[in-house]
Amino acid sequence: MISKELIQQIRKENTEVTLNEPMKNHTSFRIGGNADCFCEVRDIRSLKNIILLCRDYDTPYFILGLGSNLLVSDQGIEGVVIRLGGEFNEITLTDNNMVRCGAGSTLARLCNFAKNMSLGGLEFAWGIPGSVGGAVYMNAGAYGGEIKDTVVAVVYMDKNGRIGKYSGEELDFSYRHSAFTEKDHIILNATFQLTHKPQHQIAEQMQELMERRKTKQPINHPSAGSVFKRPEGYYAAALIEECGLKGYCYGGAQVSPKHSGFIVNDNGASAQDVLGLIDYIQRVVKEQKNVDLNCEVKFIGRA
Ligand SMILES: Cc1cc2nc3c(=O)[nH]c(=O)nc-3n(C[C@H](O)[C@H](O)[C@H](O)COP(=O)(O)OP(=O)(O)OC[C@H]3O[C@@H](n4cnc5c(N)ncnc54)[C@H](O)[C@@H]3O)c2cc1C
User: Fold this and answer.
1) What pLDDT digit, counting tens, does each position of 110-127 carry?
2) CA 8 to centroid of ligand 1, rounded, Å
3) Residue 71 belongs to domain with CATH number
4) Rg of the Cα trace of the chain?
5) 20 and 57 both lie in a single domain
6) Mutate which of 41, 61, 70, 128 for ligand 1 pocket (most atoms within 8 A of beta carbon)
7) For residue 288, how far is its CA from the centre of ligand 1 (angstroms)?
8) Whose CA is nearest to atom 47 of ligand 1?
9) Does the global pTM surpass 0.85?
10) Residues 78, 94: one domain?
11) CA 66 to ligand 1: nearest atom
12) 223: CA distance to ligand 1 center in Å?
């Protein structure tokens, strides 16, 4: 149970607070029990105060992006779920074709901003349905591009409310990994080094990649994208398909008939259904192909 006093203190900050908020309303899987407390924080001072309050009340907090890479427990999330809103949505053109973007902004807004400024480099990210914070955290990538190709600096807040900055090697980017993967830091904003490019070329490339997505991925069905990381030397989707699991159902969860790397929630799936299906896929692929599939999707919340 979350302390009433903590809630009262959080309500004094520049934030909107809801209690027992269904996480299924905040995840692309449309799955997840309630968060004890959910708040959209609008400025940096309030963010600092809230995480320090959580520390003082010995209450965990979780930073949510757009919930597009998460599987949230049916039992919900203990403590405070924080989403970055307000000033964390700001996008600014700085100098030398650099763009600074708040972590709360959608990646789509950033891509559109860059296109409107005739700045290329983020075309690959058009169609990745996350926030800028989530994209940096995950080093999101598609069609040969990755966030690491353009990010030059990231400003963060540590768990004691101190502000820091990582650049270059310190960002420790690799496949679906960043310096933030193992740390409790909150990404506040990221600076992208882009290059001048004719706007029509950027727009054409974005449209072309979106068309490819629509043809290949079940984008109109609730999912969290590719469930598994790409195993060295293989494609997860191809392995799953070769094992005869395309379209396989487990409770309300299904291996997408359109893209075997996706699990879709087409029939009121629970997190337990998805976990059961993940476990089954991993076992079958190990047995038949002797390959370990590791999850890209993150399971969070009460066990
Ligand atoms: C249809 C579909 C297609 C997809 N296609 C792709 C694709 O092509 N390529 C790809 O890489 N991914 C893809 N994904 C997965 C997902 O969109 C990405 O991983 C995305 O970057 C996640 O961002 P998010 O804001 O939704 O993060 P969330 O899912 O909310 O969170 C993911 C992790 O990031 C952390 N996080 C988020 N914001 C912050 C912050 N400000 N500070 C610290 N930590 C933070 C969270 O705590 C969590 O650990 C797809 C998903 C879907 C549903």
Assistant:
1) 999 999 999 999 999 999
2) 31
3) 3.30.43.10
4) 20
5) yes
6) 128
7) 30
8) 63
9) yes
10) no
11) 26
12) 12
Question: Has residue 124 been placed in a domain?
Answer: yes
Looking up tokens 């990231």 gives 154
Is 226 a catalytic site residue?
A: yes
In the structure encoding, which two tokens stand for residue 60, read together?
């965990």
Cα gap 262→266, rounded to integer Å: 12
Q: Is residue 67 part of a domain?
A: yes
Per the DSSP assignment, residues forming a β-bridge with 246 are none
Instruction: Tell whether 230 is covered by a domain.
Output: no
- Of the candidates 87, 105, 176, 178, the residue annotated as catalytic is 176
Domain span including residue 274: 236-300
Q: Looking at ligand 1, which residue's alpha carbon is closest to its atom 35? A: 134
- Shared-domain flag, residues 111 and 67: no
Number of domains the chain contains: 3
**Residue where a domain stops, chosen among 169, 186, 216:** 216
Rounded-to-integer distance, Cα 4 and Cα 14, Å: 18
* Count of alpha carbons within 13 angstroms of residue 302, beta-carbon side: 14
pLDDT in tens, 171-216: 999 999 999 999 999 999 999 999 999 999 999 999 999 999 999 9
User: Which residues lie below 8 Å from residue 78, measured CB to CB, with a gap of 6+?
Assistant: 2, 36, 60, 301, 302
